[in-house]
Design goal:
- This protein has about 350 residues and is α+β, with helices and mostly antiparallel strands.
- The protein contains 11 helices and 12 strands.
- It folds into 4 domains: about 80 residues, no CATH class; about 70 residues, GMP Synthetase, Chain A, domain 3 (2-Layer Sandwich), CATH 3.30.300; about 55 residues, no CATH class; about 80 residues, SH3 type barrels, CATH 2.30.30.140.
- Helices cover about 30% and strands about 20% of the residues.
- Helix 2 packs across helix 3.
Length: about 350
C-alpha cells in the first residue's frame, strides 16, 4: 500500500505525493517527484498519518480514496548530484529575477517581481509577482520565453503570500508565523483589534507584509469569552452604595472601575461586585415601571388568567365614532329616500309661519 507524503519546495510551497516503494522514507529526506510537466526536487516534511491529516485540513477535507490515481508520486530519493544541481539553480535565481525586473520596466508594466523559481529539470521557470491591478503580461511572457528558452509561468500572489514566500523576522523578534508553522492564512479584520482594546494605529498592528498581524487571531477567543463575565462598559448597575456606571474593566486582574452619580470613582474586584449587587434585576436597564391600574380589568384572585384574557385586558378599547348629523336635512339620507316635494314645501311653510 502506498503512503501519502508531504513535500516542501522553495518559498514554503508544499504539495502531496504518493510513495510506492516498500522501503520506509523519513522526513527531511530530499526526493525527486513527478509534477505536471517534468520532475522537481523537494524535501519530505511529513509522512503517513500526519501527511493525511495535513492534506485533509489543507484541501477542504478531500477523501484520498476518492481519487484513483494521485496527481504525482515520489520517483526516488535524491542523490548528491541532484541536490548539488538544485543548489546551483537556487544561486542563479537571483540573477534571473533581476533580468525579469529589467524586462518588466522596459515593457512599462505596473507589477512588482517578488521571486523566481526554477524547476529541477529546468523545463519551467515560475515568476511570482504582486500588483494592485490586473496586468496584461502576454508580451512579457513571449519576451522571457525567448530569453530563457523554457516554459514561463507568471503567478500573481498577495501581500501575505509574498511575506510567507520570502520569510523574515517579525516585530516580536521571531520568524514570521506564516513562514514557519502557520499552515493556513486566515483573514484578519480590524474588529479583532477592537475587541482586544488595541491601538488602531496601522503601524502598530501591521506586520512586515503591510497587512494586519496574523497573531491578532490567536487570543481573540479568550478576550471574547472573558468579557462575557464582566458587565459592559457604560452600563449602569445598582449596588449597595447606589447607582454606579461601569467605566472600564480589566479582564486580566478581574477588576472593574465604577463611577458614582456624584463623580467619585472606585476600583472593585469582580467577585466583590457580584456580592454587592443586590439581585440580578438591580440593573437600571432591566427595571420597568408597573403597568397602570386602569389597564387591569379583572381580579387576579378570582379570574383565570389566559393568553386571551391578558391580551384583552391590556388592549385599549376602540371608541365608537358617532355619526354627526348635518345641519341641513337630507344629508344623512340615502338617494332612494328622497322626501316628497309637497310635504317638504308644507314643512317649509310651517317653519316660516312659526
Amino acid at each position: 500500500m502506498s503512503d501519502l507524503v508531504e513535500v516542501r519546495f522553495k518559498g514554503n510551497r508544499r504539495d502531496f505525493f504518493c510513495w510506492e516503494d516498500q522501503a520506509p522514507i523519513s522526513p527531511a529526506s530530499p526526493v525527486v517527484v513527478e509534477v505536471e510537466r517534468g520532475h522537481d526536487l523537494g524535501v519530505v516534511s511529513a509522512v503517513g498519518e500526519i501527511a493525511e491529516r495535513k492534506c485533509g485540513s489543507g484541501c477542504a477535507g478531500c477523501v484520498r480514496a476518492a481519487t484513483e490515481e494521485p496527481l504525482g508520486k515520489v520517483l526516488r530519493k535524491a542523490s548528491f548530484e541532484d541536490s548539488h544541481l538544485i543548489d546551483e539553480l537556487r544561486k542563479a535565481e537571483e540573477d534571473v529575477r533581476r533580468k525579469v525586473v529589467e524586462r518588466v520596466e522596459s515593457h512599462g508594466l505596473d507589477m512588482k517581481v517578488s521571486d523566481a523559481e526554477w524547476q529541477w529539470d529546468r523545463k519551467k521557470l515560475t515568476i511570482y509577482f504582486t500588483a494592485e491591478k490586473r496586468v496584461d503580461f502576454r508580451a512579457l511572457v513571449r519576451d522571457l520565453a525567448s530569453l530563457f528558452r523554457t516554459r514561463i509561468e507568471l503567478r500573481q500572489i498577495g501581500a501575505r503570500d509574498e511575506a510567507k514566500r520570502l520569510d523574515g523576522i517579525g516585530r516580536c523578534g521571531r520568524q514570521y508565523c506564516c513562514a514557519s508553522w502557520l499552515p493556513e492564512l486566515k483573514p484578519v479584520s480590524l474588529a479583532l483589534a477592537k475587541d482586544q482594546r488595541l491601538s488602531l494605529n496601522p503601524s502598530q498592528i501591521s506586520g512586515g507584509c503591510g497587512r494586519l498581524l496574523c497573531c491578532l487571531r490567536y487570543e481573540h477567543e479568550f478576550y471574547v469569552t472573558s468579557r462575557k463575565r464582566f458587565p459592559k462598559e457604560g452600563r449602569t448597575i445598582r449596588t449597595t452604595l447606589g447607582t454606579e456606571t461601569v467605566v472600564a474593566v480589566d479582564i486580566f486582574h478581574e477588576h472593574i472601575l465604577l463611577r458614582a452619580e456624584d463623580g467619585t470613582t472606585r476600583t472593585i474586584a469582580l467577585a466583590e461586585l457580584k456580592r454587592e449587587v443586590e439581585s440580578p434585576e438591580t440593573t437600571v436597564e432591566k427595571l420597568q415601571p408597573p403597568p397602570p391600574s386602569a389597564l387591569v380589568t379583572f381580579e387576579e384572585s378570582e379570574a383565570q388568567i389566559t393568553t386571551e384574557t391578558a391580551a384583552e385586558a391590556v388592549t385599549p378599547r376602540k371608541r365608537r365614532r358617532r355619526k354627526k348629523r348635518g345641519r341641513h336635512r337630507g344629508r344623512g339620507r340615502s338617494p332612494t329616500q328622497q322626501p316628497n316635494s309637497d310635504s317638504s314645501a308644507e314643512t317649509d311653510g310651517e317653519d316660516r309661519r312659526g
